[in-house]
Design a protein that fits this description.
Blueprint lengths: L2 H24 L5 H27 L1
Helix pairs in contact: 1-2
Length: 59
């Protein structure tokens, strides 16, 4: 897996996680935008670390 593929995976999965978290809290009356951004940033960080560990292990 190249670095570009890893970035694409991390960003796309993070978008899905951000959308799901924003949608779930919006049903309870909270701000979609705030939780989308915070969920996206948090999942980017976590997934970035996980993908880095996996890429270092495989190479």
């Amino acid at each position: 897996m190249s670095g570009l593929e890893a970035i694409i995976y991390v960003v796309s999965i993070s978008l899905v996680v951000g959308l799901l978290s924003g949608w779930m809290v919006q049903k309870k009356g909270y701000s979609f935008k705030q939780y989308f951004v915070s969920g996206f940033i948090a999942s980017c960080g976590i997934l970035g670390i996980v993908f880095k560990i996996i890429m270092d292990y495989l190479n």
